[in-house]
Every structure is written in structure tokens, then in C-alpha cells.
Specification:
GO molecular function: protein serine/threonine kinase activator activity
Order of helices and strands: HHHHHHHHHHHHHHHHHHHHH
CATH class of one domain: Mainly Alpha
Number of strands: 0
Protein name: Calcium binding protein 39
InterPro entries: ARM-like, ARM-type_fold, Mo25
CATH topology of one domain: Glutathione S-transferase Yfyf (Class Pi), Chain A, domain 2
Family: Belongs to the Mo25 family.
Shape: elongated
Pfam families: Mo25 (PF08569)
Strand content: under 5%
Length: 335
């Protein structure tokens, strides 16, 4: 009985310390009853820590308790340990880790975000979270944590400017549908949330980025190809990326790639490619080689646009799409 009484009188900070100790023990214990008991204790301590941060039932969390828990999490290096050992925890415990992480990331002291500041000094935490996509058991949990991290520009910058950013295609192309979709969503978040920072990165790393991104556009996987084309259109049409857009639409190879997609058997692929292709056509300052390609293919493009304009199937009745294809007629007739 004394053992249980001691557990009940733990302070929130002591609970966090006990959590760290049990995670270390879990990592050092072979499979069996002993490991099972430690895992159950880890689950209980995680649930208790979560409740201290977000409240239990209708009770609001205490700011003092939140501060105690947060400071002990930082002191015990739990931000790192929770990600590294997530795969050893039970299903519900993994969900509690997500709650703990997201609550701490959103915690503010005045204008400061202490958890963000700490992770910004520990890039390994971000990279280990990204590596969670390699483990199907925890991929969606770590994906949820990573999305929350990417809301903060200092953390998104660390990932974008790292070598690890270029592992996204592997997770997008070589995992299950659910994990692939989640990984793509995180890559998109990295590339779209903090626009001025991303524009600066793309301008400085144009060739490397688009060499990588083209592999996704040319993917044999329909979903990857479609969502990559859609995101490309969003990137190019964002005002913050004007200089990137002008470089992209000056490339003959890029134009030919989009024209090939206009012939794709999938109407959805054609639709997404059209929104990139129209930027080439509408450019008032076309390089000579771009204008020459469009002139050589003018008749075929006009036939395609006529069919595109008259298509009555699904999304092709959208007014915007029809009005844009009409505008393309005008541009092409003027070539």
C-alpha cells in the first residue's frame, strides 16, 4: 500500500521525472512480463502528464502546474526521448505523446514560445520526428507532431534548409497510401506556410529543389503525380515566388513536360497541368525558345483547348476553367 500512496502524492514534476526513468528502463529491459509492467507504467505516467497539461474532465489546467511539467520535460530531455522511443509505447500512449507535444509547442510566455526555442537548438528532434515516417506503427503520430512543429518558422526553416528535407520523396513514394499522403502534407506545409522564408530558400536552391520535385511530378503513382502538379501550380502562382515562377516558365523542358501532361489519359492530371501550362502561355515576356515551341504546336494546342473548353464531364464545367481556356485561345491566336 505504501508504494501506491507514494505514487499518488507525486508532484507533476516528479511524475515527469518518473516517466523519464521508466522510458530508460523500458529501453534496457528485454521482452517479457517485466517489460510489459514498465510499459504499463509509462502509459500511466504519460496519461498523468497529459492531464496535467490539458486538464482532466471539466477541470482547467493550472498555469503553475503546466510550468512545472514543461520545465521538467525540458530538464529531462523528454522532447527527444518521447520521439526516439515512441515505437515502444502502447497505442493510447502514443496518442498521449502527441497531445503532450502539441500542448507544449503552443505554450507561450509573453511573446516567447519556450518549447519552440528549445527544439530550435536541437535539430535532431525535428529530424528524428521526420524519420518516424519510416516506421508504419508510429508514422501518423510523428506526422502529427511534425505538422505542429512546422507551424513555427524557426523549426520549418531548420527542416527546409537541411539535407533531411530531401528524404521526403522517399517517404512519399515508398510507403503506404496513408503515410505517403501524410508525408506529402508535411512537405507541402514546409513549402507554403512561411512564404517569404520559402521564397528565399527556393531562389537560392532552385536547381536542387526542382530536380528533386520533378521526380515527384513524374511519379508513376497517380496520387503523387496529381498532388505534386497541384502544389507546383500553387507555388508558381504565389506572389512571394514571382522570381521562381519566371525562372520555371523560361525552361523549355518544363514547358514540354506540361504539354505532355495535357495529353495524359487522366482528366484530373490534365486539369492540374493546365493550371501550370497557362502560366507559360500568359507570360507577356516569353523567351524566344518558349514562344517558338508554342507556335510550332499552336494548332494542336488549339484543338486540345477546344475539347478542354467543351468538356462536360465533372470539374471541367467549372466557370473558372472555361474562362481560362477561352483566354488561352486568345493568347495562342496572337502567337
Amino acid at each position: 500500500m505504501n508504494f501506491f500512496n507514494r505514487q499518488k502524492t507525486r508532484t507533476p514534476a516528479e511524475t515527469v521525472k518518473a516517466l523519464k526513468d521508466n522510458i530508460v528502463r523500458l529501453d534496457q529491459t528485454a521482452a517479457g512480463e517485466g517489460r510489459k509492467r514498465i510499459n504499463e507504467e509509462v502509459s500511466r505516467l504519460l496519461a498523468s502528464t497529459k492531464n496535467s497539461l490539458i486538464g482532466e474532465g471539466e477541470a482547467e489546467p493550472s498555469p503553475d502546474v503546466i510550468a512545472q511539467v514543461a520545465n521538467e520535460v525540458y530538464a529531462q530531455d523528454l522532447l527527444s526521448l518521447l520521439v526516439i522511443h515512441l515505437g515502444k509505447f502502447d497505442f493510447e500512449a502514443r496518442k498521449d505523446v502527441c497531445h503532450i507535444y502539441n500542448t507544449l509547442l503552443r505554450r507561450q510566455l509573453g511573446t516567447r514560445s519556450p518549447t519552440v526555442d528549445i527544439i530550435a537548438t536541437r535539430p535532431d528532434i525535428i529530424f528524428n520526428t521526420l524519420k518516424g515516417y519510416a516506421n508504419a506503427d508510429i508514422a501518423l503520430n510523428t506526422g502529427m507532431i511534425l505538422k505542429e512543429m512546422l507551424r513555427y518558422e524557426p523549426l520549418a526553416r531548420i527542416l527546409l534548409y537541411s539535407e533531411q528535407f530531401y528524404t521526403f520523396p522517399n517517404y512519399i513514394e515508398n510507403t503506404t497510401f496513408g503515410i505517403s499522403t501524410d508525408a506529402f502534407a508535411c512537405m507541402k506545409e514546409t513549402l507554403t506556410r512561411h512564404k517569404p522564408m520559402v521564397a528565399q530558400y527556393l531562389d537560392a536552391n532552385y536547381d536542387r529543389f526542382f530536380n528533386m520535385y520533378t521526380t515527384l511530378i513524374l511519379s508513376a503513382n497517380y496520387v503523387t503525380k496529381r498532388q505534386s502538379l497541384k502544389l507546383l501550380g500553387e507555388i508558381l502562382l504565389d506572389r512571394a515566388n514571382y522570381s521562381i515562377m519566371t525562372r520555371y516558365i523560361a525552361s523549355e523542358a518544363n514547358l514540354k513536360m506540361m504539354m505532355n501532361f495535357l495529353r495524359d489519359k487522366s482528366r484530373n492530371i490534365q486539369f492540374e497541368a493546365f493550371h501550370v501550362f497557362k502560366v507559360f502561355v500568359a507570360n507577356p515576356n516569353k523567351p524566344a525558345q518558349i514562344a517558338a515551341i508554342l507556335r510550332r504546336n499552336k494548332d494542336k494546342l488549339l484543338v486540345f483547348l477546344k475539347e478542354f473548353h467543351n468538356d462536360k464531364d465533372g470539374m471541367f464545367v467549372l466557370f473558372q476553367c472555361l474562362s481560362e481556356s477561352s483566354l488561352m485561345f486568345e493568347y495562342l491566336f496572337c502567337l
